[in-house]
Amino acid sequence: MKKTAFAIVLAAGFAAPVLAQPAFEYQFVPFAGTPGMTVGDGFETTASSVSFWFQARARNAVGANNFGIVRVGNGFTPSSMSLTGPATIARGNANLSGTRRGRTTGLRFTGTSGGDFELAAANAPAQINPNANQGNENGFWTPTAINRWDAYQGFQRASLFDADDNYVNPYGTPITNGAFTEWLNIYAVTVNFTAFGTSTVTGFAWGNLGRTTTIVGSNTIIDLLVAPVSSTASIRVTQIPAPGAAALLGLGVLAAGRRRR
User: What is the pLDDT of residue 11?
Assistant: First the structure.
């Protein structure tokens, strides 16, 4: 069903805000403690390798329930991360132990559909056959792209009860005023530089959020939007020489200039 946004014109001549429709927004944020600094819409570092979270936030229409992000990844078309520039890309460590690759723990599902690579301890791009069940939710990748990653919660949770044995909705209280959720870590990527310079990382994915919940037996089942919503984000990542290395490069250029005289 086609959704139409309405604006009410007030007597003073100002238009009221358009009712918020379902939407997802994405951004790349460096891991906490990553050496470097944000410069405009990019990130500069002297490190040879840096990791970023692909984060999402979502809203639903005013008056409709938003139980938060339930899925980000594949939709009508596959999700993707792509890189251009003097670097390569890989799935990042999504937890401190380094055993989770790509998808954050909160959006990884709890089943076994990830296959042998679901908890892979290594990060070599060994998934050759994208049709085989080799952890495709974590993504298939080459040095310049990660494709078909899919981060999701699953659609039910065991019921929870408080100290008085009253049922507690594990999905929490929904947002109903059309506001965005808080930013949520979705998928980790690592950029490995091959030379000084700027690379651009672009992420594309479909998102979905919880709109209703139903108690079925001892589980809570969550229903999603009828159709997922797509969006993109990108970040420029630049590797620059460390101050000492830059000084040495400058001396080298100066010495070369003197030799030519």
Answer: 33
